[in-house]
Amino acid sequence: MNVRRVIRNLFLPPWRVRLVFPARTLRAIEAAIRAAETTHAGEIRFAVESGLPFLPLLRGQPARERALEVFSQLRVWDTQRNNGVLIYLLLADRDVEIIADRDAHARVSTEGWEKICREMETLFRQGKFEQGVLHGIRSVSAHLARHYPPQKKDSNELDDRPVVF
């Protein structure tokens, strides 16, 4: 068990997310997702969590595993073309995970998603949280636009609002 990680996750209060992502920033993220989705037929969700819940933390749950749970909970997998993408941030660890539904994942390599995560984490280490998320949205959208051009009858299948846990 990583004691530092446990302390970081337990003692980073949920209200800290609101300091890093105030309402203005959440609105900017929502607008960026909405605008990005006009350039492709994919779906993007963004979720941020201050820290892991107690029991998963004690079990040593990695951020990736938690991101998979959030992906399922938000039903990002529930798109017609299996092209939903979740950008998940575990704030206590400053760890970004991108989970893509099966068709989107098959079209973009794991390395492609990981590159976006590392770029976002670099911006987060500089305290540039809004810029980091907006960069991630643009980068994910570039991949989705390449593989899923916009359709005339395209509907918004998933909510564009960021989710704060």
TrEMBL record:
**Basic and acidic residues composition-biased segments:** 151-165
Annotated region Disordered: the residues are 146-165
Domain TPM: where? 22-141
Q: Where are the transmembrane segments?
A: none
Give the superkingdom in one word: Bacteria
What is the protein named?
Answer: Membrane protein
Q: Which organism is it from?
A: Sulfuricaulis limicola
